[in-house]
Design goal:
- The complex is a heterodimer of chains A (116) and B (115).
- By secondary structure, chain A is mainly beta.
- In chain A, a hairpin with a 5-residue loop joins strand 4 and strand 5.
- The radius of gyration of chain A is 13 Å and the shape is globular.
- Chain B is mainly beta.
- Helix content of chain B is 0%, strand content 56%.
- In chain B, strands 2, 4, 5, 9, 10 and 11 form a six-stranded mixed β-sheet that branches. In chain B, strands 1-3-8-7-6 form a five-stranded antiparallel β-sheet, with no helix packed on it.
- The chains are: A mainly beta (116), B mainly beta (115).
- At the A-B interface, strand 5, strand 9 and strand 10 of A face strand 4 and strand 5 of B.
Chain lengths: 116, 115
């Protein structure tokens, strides 16, 4: 149980294009999902908190117009990196909190983004 | 000063050794404590979850939380090469606070168990 999937697992795109990453909770409902970014040999940095049916809450320093988050259902949240640039290249990971369970977060496998 | 401090290592041990991983923290509002294991190029995997102080054991893994000292530990017994990964401690405040729901991570400790 408590499986979170992400799609795609990796993506290469040209500078200036937009990329959408999906995060799904497969066997539980998640009222809250979180989006993280991780650089090589560093810990996870929280970008935003996504609540089903409401606007996402962004961490300080994260551009909400660049990183668009939509949490349309209890099992799906999407992160769209708009007008991607090489500095946006990173490992993006989502997590989901089980509304019916403990306060733990279950993480997806991550999406590796490379912007050329 | 970071809210959560974790020695990044790297830590290298022989197979079968007991591994001790630790984190200290400064925020007394933290009530939920977790350990995650992350293999290279993968998402973190939940290993242990503890609420408030105390010990918890699951197979070869034991988690300890000492809130009076603001110190948490993860012990791995009979370590195996497959345990080689980065171990992240994470903490969360109790309900009602502005930081509720957000995990604060340590830097992660890189562990290598060699045969």
């Amino acid at each position: 149980g408590a499986v979170v999937s992400q799609h795609p697992s990796w993506v290469i795109c040209k500078s200036g294009t937009s990329v959408k990453i999906e995060c799904r909770s497969l066997d539980f409902q998640a009222t809250t999902m979180f989006w993280y970014r991780q650089f090589p040999k560093q810990s996870l940095m929280l970008m935003a908190t996504s609540n089903e049916g409401s606007k996402a809450t962004y961490e300080q320093g994260v551009e909400k117009d660049k990183f668009l988050i939509n949490h349309a259902s209890l099992t799906l949240s999407t992160l769209t990196v708009t007008s991607a640039h090489p500095e946006d290249s990173s490992f993006y990971i989502c997590s989901a909190r089980d509304r019916a369970g403990t306060e733990t977060q279950y993480f997806g496998p991550g999406t590796r983004l490379l912007v050329l | 000063q970071k809210e959560v401090e974790q020695d990044p290592g790297p830590l290298s041990v022989p197979e079968g050794a007991i591994v001790s991983l630790n984190c200290t923290y400064s925020n007394s509002a933290f009530q939920y404590f977790m350990w995650y294991r992350q293999y290279s190029r993968k998402g973190p995997e939940l290993l242990m979850y503890t609420y408030s102080s105390g010990n918890k054991e699951d197979g070869r893994f034991t988690a300890q939380v000492d809130k009076s000292s603001k110190y948490i530990s993860l012990f791995i017994r009979d370590s195996q090469p497959s345990d080689s990964a980065t171990y992240l401690c994470a903490m969360m405040a109790n309900a009602g606070g502005t930081s509720y729901g957000k995990l604060t991570f340590g830097q992660g400790t890189i562990l290598t168990v060699h045969p």
